[in-house]
Predict the structure.
Amino acid sequence: MKPITIDSPTPRNGKTGALSRLWRTPSLLAGSIMLAVLVLLAVLIPLISPYDPTKQDLSAFLQPPSAEHWLGTDQLGRDLFTRLIYAARTDLTIMVLAEIIPFCVGVFLGMIAGYYGKWLDTVISLITDTFIAFPFYLIVIIVAFASGAGQRGIYITFILVGWIVFARVTRGLTASFRRQEWVASARTLGLPGVRIMLRHILPNVLPQAIVVLMTDMVGLLVAIVTLGYLGIGITPPTPDWGTMIFDGQPFITTAWWLSAVPGFAVVYTGIALSLVGDGLADLWRKK
Amino acid sequence: MMSIQPLLEVEGLSLAAKPGGKILVDTISFTLNKGETLGLVGESGSGKSLTLRAVLGLLPRGVEKVGGAIQSGASSAMVFQDPRGALDPLCPVVKQLTEVVYYRQKLSRKASRAAALELLDRLGLPDSLKHTDRYPSQLSGGQCQRVVIAMALACKPGILLCDEPTTALDVTVQRQIIETISALQKELGFAMVFVTHNLAIAAAMCSKLCVMKEGRIVEQGEARALLQNPQDPYTQMLMNSVLPVPELEGSV
């Protein structure tokens, strides 16, 4: 039940600064800082590191961590730290770019399905349910194989598969808003359907969709790394965490950090994104 | 004898649930003339709100019209029971009102905003609303209801449909809202269909009453006459269920 208050002349003061709200949501704050550190490193790496991520130096291979090479060198004498951060550039860029189109398409289709219902909803739900019935990685590997290794293949794969999750979430939310009085009210007051969807339902659906986006990005990152590891993702010599883990495998007993460090980087990014997602969910729930 | 055409004429309206076809509203008829207020009273589930929604053309999913006709000579707009629920929680109230003015009165954006602010004034909402963006959650229930009424009036309706507009409100606010609606009706001259289960409000607001029970109108007529001399046993029961105000000890 909503509290009912006496008709007071002055409403309580709401909206406080975005910064103070960020401060009161520790998980969002922690996640944002973790992500910011990573992004900053990725942007500034040409200034930080004197090494080239792809230039080999066979006279200095498999060196342990030192003052010159903070995380040592790999089997081809490339600086591991430099490669790690350049790989973050590759993987994070793909992650964000490969999420944009599916996010927009998914939210759009989900909203239409939820709002208009009827046959449109049936068709869209049928497609999403069919995709859901297949194991995610099965589809990813098949499409990635079919479209060829490299970045293009990853983009095609995720544009084909990625929108499903957003469509499902948005459809459910929109359908529930559709039953609420304010949508009915807006319709009887004569607002056009498109207007109701874009200006009223979209802002209500977006917070949830963005929280889902954050968790979905974690899954996408792991998928990108997995494809790289399996050799059907990013092709060498472009630095990528997946191929780095694979390349370090033969040396796991002597130079374990070659595989462990990129693995840790995946976990770090995953935690950061999850924290941001959780934090945003908390923030919007409180409001 | 020719009489003036009624503003709203409902004849033999029947509504049913879609699967199964359970009858929810059973062949009801009433008419509403210009400037009149018709009250629909009865307990929860008697079909009052459904009737109102049928007049508005807004039947919930799963309910359909199975018989009868609704003839309306004027546009209608609705005031909802839960004012907070009738507003988009993430859109500033002034913006929502402006939007309705923009689409219904076909003014420019700037003129729409001016007209919206004027409506807010007329409904006695504080100036603080105009200067900063206020969201529905920042307004009291009564203020929200005023905004909802303003939005309905922005449609310049010939008939205002009120679906228990005071039930979700505090008692002290109920009276203010009722008085506001009455004053606006005098000023603007719209007709009203007023759904309520509160007989006191019905007696104060309505010129005609329809008593509903289980989807049927059991009794209808002039409000005063009907309440003073109820014929149907259900109406009598409804009236007896109103708790009398106990006489205060020591007071004269």
Summary: The two ends of chain B are 53 Å apart (CA to CA).
